[in-house]
Design a protein that fits this description.
Structural class: alpha/beta
Number of domains: 4
Radius of gyration: 32 Å
Distance between the termini: 82 Å
Strand content: 15-25%
Helix content: 25-40%
């Protein structure tokens, strides 16, 4: 009852004030009609508050989305199925969904009276121009009486998560060779470590042919095991994204960091399409949610990578964490998306090159996102030439360069001398002084 009285609207309070005034006037003026009018004005909001306060509505809500993961700028549809599971009809319902400001304004709906076991469905659309992981809900329901005297709020506890991933651009096929010599596509491969039994059998996955079940291994392991038909050698690729704050310029969606994440997303999808097992590494180290994975469905492979890129944030650490690098051996192909690289980063870049069978780098021309280069930092051309001199295949990229053209230019670079266009400008000797 106290909750209902506190939820009384301006109209309800006006009824109480008018009723009280009428009762007081009737005492001084002696009009019996004012007593009846005042009593009606006072009792109507009080009775309504008592009725709503004692009512126990049983409302159910089911939230479903057209897709839990969409791309920046892509629209997602959300359907709300509201049901009245109680025996009492509801009054006028005002629904308001709690959504982040990045997804637009909060959707509001008005639902008429719902009888017992009735159901109502409403749909709204959201889209975001920035990547990230967003929470939809909880849903707030406002209950109101037919006279608009009392308005109470109820909140559902269920929420949903929408992941907005960076935009993905189809990339042209380029040679992804470890030695950078000869023709063909000899992808860098790494041996899948484990025992002989791990190499020949694996756990049963939905969709596997039952004729491949290895019953002896299944009895020993206590679960279904199937024979492997693929080679124990895997094509692996490490995708490094330089997400240090001071290595980028600009703000919001137009910053160089957002461009680096967009390039990384396109490269990740392209490598998975080429049959690579991809892991994501940032300046803070390896992402635990995107470890090596086996070849399977394309959407299942790219979804965790794109989700990790969607929530990738800048780090204030000025150094590149290289503890993820193996102590010995090669980890396959390495593709790095670099920002503004300085002299303090050379040791980590040299280690990265030596730990990989092949190394490729897209160096962002970070000063192009903001006027004037930062003091003490290398230009993109100097960084590209330095990387080429140390065994990388590197190319510079500006905000105006299409991602597909940059990737194709990266594939056209040959040998440790880097891009011929940049060497002809005499940038390599400047970088190695």
């Amino acid at each position: 009852m106290r909750e209902a009285l506190s939820a009384m609207t301006t109209r309800g309070r006006a009824f109480l004030s008018a009723g009280g005034t009428a009762l007081v006037c009737s005492l001084f003026l002696g009009y019996d009609e004012l007593v009846r009018v005042g009593a009606l004005l006072v009792l109507l909001p009080l009775a309504t508050a008592f009725f709503l306060g004692r009512s126990r509505y049983r409302l159910g809500l089911v939230r479903s989305m057209s897709s839990a993961q969409v791309t920046v700028g892509q629209q997602a549809s959300v359907q709300l199925d509201l049901s009245n599971d109680g025996r009492m009809p509801t009054g006028l319902l005002l629904l308001q969904e709690q959504v982040p400001i990045a997804l637009g304004t909060r959707p509001r709906f008005v639902v008429d009276q719902m009888g017992p076991t009735w159901k109502r469905s409403v749909t709204y659309h959201v889209r975001s121009d920035v990547r990230g992981r967003f929470q939809l809900g909880p849903m707030q329901v406002r209950l109101s009486d037919p006279f608009g005297l009392v308005r109470m709020e109820r909140t559902f506890q269920s929420v949903a998560t929408l992941v907005v991933t960076p935009p993905v651009v189809p990339l042209p096929p380029i040679p992804l060779s470890g030695a950078w010599t000869g023709s063909g596509d000899n992808r860098p491969r790494a041996f899948a470590s484990g025992s002989a039994q791990d190499v020949t059998v694996r756990e049963y996955r939905r969709g596997d042919d039952l004729r491949r079940v290895h019953w002896r291994s299944s009895a020993h392991a206590g679960e279904l095991m199937v024979r492997r038909e693929e080679q124990p050698w895997q094509s692996r690729a490490t995708l490094f994204v330089d997400n240090r704050t001071f290595a980028h310029r600009g703000t919001g969606a137009a910053s160089s960091l957002e461009h680096a994440v967009a390039v990384a997303a396109s490269v990740a999808v392209h490598l998975v399409q080429r049959g690579f097992s991809v892991r994501l590494v940032s300046a803070r180290g390896e992402d635990r949610n995107s470890l090596w994975h086996e070849h399977g469905a394309l959407s299942a492979e790219t979804a965790p990578l794109l989700e990790s890129l969607a929530v990738l944030t800048a780090t204030m650490d000025p150094h590149i964490d290289s503890r993820w690098l193996p102590d010995a051996g090669h980890s396959g192909l390495l593709v790095a998306i670099l920002g503004d690289v300085g002299d303090a980063d050379t040791a980590a870049l040299v280690r990265m090159r030596h730990s990989a069978a092949g190394a490729m780098a897209v160096v962002l021309d970070v000063p192009a996102w903001e006027r004037g280069p930062a003091p003490g930092r290398r230009s993109a051309a100097r960084t590209t030439a330095w990387l080429a001199a140390h065994g990388w295949r590197a190319v510079a990229a500006s905000p105006e360069d299409p991602v597909g053209a940059v990737w194709q230019e990266l594939g056209a670079t040959s040998g440790p001398v880097g891009s011929r266009s940049r060497v002809s400008q005499g940038l390599a000797p400047e970088a190695t002084r």
